[in-house]
Amino acid sequence: MPFLKDIVPAAQNNIQTQFILLDKGKVIGDGQTKTCMALVADETAAVHFQLWGVECDTFETGDIIQLSSGIFSFQRNHLVLRAGKRGKIEKVGEFTLPYVETPNLSEMTWVPDPNNRNKYVQETVVSPHSRIFPPIH
């Protein structure tokens, strides 16, 4: 299963990965339209993950989540990983996954690859840590 550090922005639902949920933000909206942002990570990187509808209540800090057919794309000018309409997330464990909080892929500027306009590459690091979920230490 690919590591987070290996994913790049794309308009395709093809990301298969696994991560631990480190923190969850405030829920916005209600019912099926509610969303919340989460900070997730694996042993290689961290990224912001968007939860939708019942997902906001289903997953908790410390849950190990497997993502199938996910998408890493722009959401209001920020890159977020999400299941999307065709993707699926499920809890596969808890508290036993090594992780790092840097680099945070959502805190990078991505630009089209000059050699392949269908791909993106990292250009600059905006912040080494999540600005939505600042480090505690």
UniProtKB/TrEMBL annotation:
<protein>
    <recommendedName>
        <fullName>SOSS complex subunit B homolog</fullName>
    </recommendedName>
</protein>
<dbReference type="GO" id="GO:0044818">
    <property type="term" value="P:mitotic G2/M transition checkpoint"/>
</dbReference>
<dbReference type="InterPro" id="IPR051231">
    <property type="entry name" value="SOSS-B"/>
</dbReference>
<dbReference type="GO" id="GO:0003677">
    <property type="term" value="F:DNA binding"/>
</dbReference>
<dbReference type="InterPro" id="IPR012340">
    <property type="entry name" value="NA-bd_OB-fold"/>
</dbReference>
<dbReference type="GO" id="GO:0010212">
    <property type="term" value="P:response to ionizing radiation"/>
</dbReference>
<dbReference type="GO" id="GO:0070876">
    <property type="term" value="C:SOSS complex"/>
</dbReference>
<keyword id="KW-0238">DNA-binding</keyword>
<dbReference type="GO" id="GO:0005694">
    <property type="term" value="C:chromosome"/>
</dbReference>
<dbReference type="GO" id="GO:0000724">
    <property type="term" value="P:double-strand break repair via homologous recombination"/>
</dbReference>
